[in-house]
Write a structure and sequence with these properties.
This protein is of the alpha+beta class and 486 residues long. It is built from twelve helices and 18 strands. Keywords: Signal.
Length: 486
């Protein structure tokens, strides 16, 4: 009886204690269960929830991405990007591509590829297959960034299926008014101002500005009708006797690729990738069943219809005849023509627009401008696939830009080793690009020793382990630039 009483007493005494000891573990499990996923990445850093794209709005920008049946934006917990046929509209091979690739061989988004396979997958996507043959008959790889262009609109051929992540894009090109705010706030000097001249269409130059001291209106070797005019820049689009006044709502021109990128950075945005840009320009015309030649349809010879949708040259002879059928001989206000199905203005005509990516000597511009035609009989055909490349420092009266922005994503972390423990020295670079290395104090004590030290360490294994231990630190994982943004 006494033993039964003692056993009962001790069981009652131990039960609350054991329950208290179990509480932290149970609470920890509950916390992980309530978390978004409770998973850690390969470095052991906790993953946070993705922000809801529906909570993100920016004035003057439009969201391009997948929506559910109720019209709400899909979150990053699913594949909320979209796929479409990217490339020129002049090539009918997109129908075969649709059948063979889009339907039967779904394209894996880059972010679904395991990290250890990602670099190889990106390499294969960049370089594609080895199809270029030399005179000796050998197959050689195409250079990085090589794009085959259609002779009429300069668009990429053959068309191919691409995947694009969601993004925000300005509904209009950046205007003179917007760019003026940037210049006044930062005292920014454009490259046209630094060089002292820019390219203007020869028929729009005031004859009284011609003199022996203004570069003699030297023509662009790649565009004979564009001449260099001293003093032409964004405030003086045609030269010293012109002004942007009364054109505040026209697209800003005479801006280089760097000028455009600096403005986008100032407003917290970036230049769009051309795949993003074309996705916005096609506005849902993504497959063979609804893919059209122009933003307004397939009427390729109807100038009257085109004049109601885009600022182009018109049926007159270029560069001398422009009857301003669309109401303007040069640039037009950014909201003068109706928007496309997604709400974007001037995706065709008015001004070419700088794109992200490309090479410095061959930066990409998209969309055509006011000097282009419908059928490519002069300059480019202003189709949805219209594309060209120019030097990054080029400034002309028909190139502008608009900005893009990626939706917010969760912050991901990982652990890295300290650089000084990896390399043992610190590299310092001076203004001339010369790199000098400085030894890190104490590093030799941890990682370098002579034979005598080795014998001592053998006798003291714990000290040896401590000296070889490498410290880690938790840092924000830099988001990779996916190829579908270019």
């Amino acid at each position: 009886m006494k033993s039964l009483f003692l056993s009962t007493f001790f069981s009652l005494l131990i039960a609350p204690i054991s329950s208290l000891l179990a509480t932290p573990n149970d609470a920890h499990v509950t916390t992980n269960t309530n978390n978004h996923n409770g998973d850690d990445d390969e470095w052991g850093a906790n993953l946070e929830d993705h922000p809801d794209p529906n909570d993100e709005h920016y004035d003057g920008m439009i969201y391009v991405g997948k929506h559910d049946d109720n019209g709400r934006r899909l979150g990053f917990d699913v594949d909320n990007g979209f796929r479409y046929i990217f490339g020129t509209s002049f090539d009918d091979s997109h129908k075969e591509i649709e059948e063979n690739d889009l339907l039967h061989h779904p394209l894996r988004p880059v972010h679904d590829i395991p990290e250890h396979e990602r670099e190889q997958a990106l390499k294969q996507r960049r370089h594609k297959t080895l199809t270029a043959a030399t005179a000796e008959g050998k197959i050689v790889p195409k250079p990085f960034g090589y794009v085959e262009e259609h002779p009429l609109d300069g668009g990429a051929v053959p068309p191919k299926v691409v995947h694009v992540d969601p993004f925000f894009l300005d509904e209009t090109p950046v205007t003179n008014k917007d760019f003026g705010k940037f210049v006044r706030a930062t005292y920014y000097e454009t490259e046209a101002e630094k060089y002292g001249w820019s390219f203007v269409l020869e028929t729009m130059v005031d004859p009284s500005t011609r003199s022996d001291n203004d570069l003699n209106h030297e023509a662009d070797p790649d565009a004979e009708h564009w001449v260099a005019v001293a003093g032409a820049y964004w405030r003086q689009p045609e030269g010293p006797k012109s002004s942007y006044k009364y054109r505040e709502n026209h697209p800003v021109v005479h801006v280089s690729h760097r000028d455009a990128a600096e403005y986008c950075k100032w407003v917290g945005k970036r230049l769009p990738g051309e795949r993003e840009w074309e996705a916005a320009a096609r506005a849902g015309h993504y497959g063979p069943s609804n893919r059209t030649l122009f933003a307004w349809g397939d009427a390729d010879d109807d100038w009257e219809l085109a004049s109601k949708h885009a600022n182009l040259w018109g049926p007159g002879v270029f560069p001398t005849e422009n009857n301003a059928m669309d109401g303007f001989r040069a640039t037009s206000p950014v909201k003068n023509y109706p928007p496309n199905a997604l709400g974007f203005y001037d995706m065709t005509g008015n001004v070419w627009e700088w794109q992200r990516g490309g090479k410095h000597k061959a930066r990409i511009v998209r969309g055509g401008s006011f000097v282009d035609s419908l059928d490519g009989s002069f300059n480019h055909a202003a189709t949805l696939g219209a594309r060209s490349t120019v030097h990054g420092t080029t400034t002309t009266a028909n190139i502008g830009f608009r900005c893009a922005k990626a939706p917010k994503r969760r912050t991901e972390y990982h652990y890295v080793y300290h650089d000084e423990e990896l390399h043992g020295q610190l590299a310092v670079e001076d203004q001339f690009g010369r790199r000098d290395t400085l030894p890190i104090q104490g590093w030799e004590d941890q990682h370098s020793w002579d034979n005598e030290d080795e014998e001592e360490l053998d006798d003291e294994p714990m000290i040896n382990m401590q000296r070889q231990e490498r410290k880690k630190k938790k840092v924000v994982k830099k988001r990779e630039l996916f190829s579908n943004e270019l």
